[in-house]
Amino acid sequence: MNPVETGKGLAVITGASSGIGYELAKCAAQDGYDLIIAADEVEIKEAAQRLKEFGTRVEAMQVDLATEDGVRRLVNGIEALDRTVDILLANAGRGLGDDFLDQDLQGAQRVVDTNISGTIALVHVVGNRMRSRGQGRILFTGSIAGFMPGTFQAVYNATKAFINSFSFALREELKDTGVSVTCLMPGATDTEFFERADMLDTAVGQGKKDDPAFVARVGYEAMMNGEGDVVSGWKNKLMAAVANVTPAETLAKQHRKMSEPGTAKQ
Questions:
Q1: What is the pLDDT of residues 200-244, one digit of tens each?
Q2: Domains of the chain, with CATH numbers?
Q3: What global pTM score does this model have?
Q4: Smallest Cα–Cα separation from 169: which of 134, 138, 145, 132?
Q5: SS3 letters for 80-106?
Q6: How far apart are CA 56 and CA 10, in angstroms?
Q7: Kind of pairing, strands 229-231 and 10-14?
Q8: Where do the coiled-coil regions begin and end (predicted)?
């Protein structure tokens, strides 16, 4: 056994500087896992200091997972510990409001690169290693946004539709390998997401949101139980159920009411 190990295994959590990602890291630390946490913000260092209070080893990496270099650096950081990854919580994500043609194209592409490209690149590496040894757990942070066309969030919702779908497909491919795949699908959550996506002037940006600690706990427990997917909160479960039987055109019109700039109640 590596003498620096303090926990019962190693958990890697992306997008862990705040919000759902930080709370997922807290769940893993409380459960006795050592952590590698990653984000593209300097605040990841502060998050690491708080997480060390749970008595496990915490390594923080400030990397941009929207880039090939960022993914490579994270993988190298994992390899440097000479540890196998027991659970991977692929939570890194980015949003962007406003209508697509008025968005900065580079910013829209960055949403795709973070939510999709960087995520699947990391999972490809870690997932292969899990399959080779016949053990591991993967949790994706998807979204109920993936069930509906995202008017004024078109790129973001489309990336979450990809993640939701990808997770189900990967789960079936890894059936009977000892590697489980779970998709957490939250609704609007009280994080910095809406501020960063420039959506504070929208109805959803100003509306009531779920507690990220609750959302993370629901997802973490579903992963540990080997469940395929979980929608956090009864209101979100209802929205997901309705979305599955509602025409896409209608969903797009409904989404406009939530995400169109200037729709926040004054």
A1: 888 888 888 889 999 999 999 999 999 999 998 878 888 888 888
A2: 10-259 (3.40.50.720)
A3: 0.92
A4: 138
A5: HCCCCCCEEEECCCCCCCCCHHHCCHH
A6: 10
A7: unpaired
A8: none
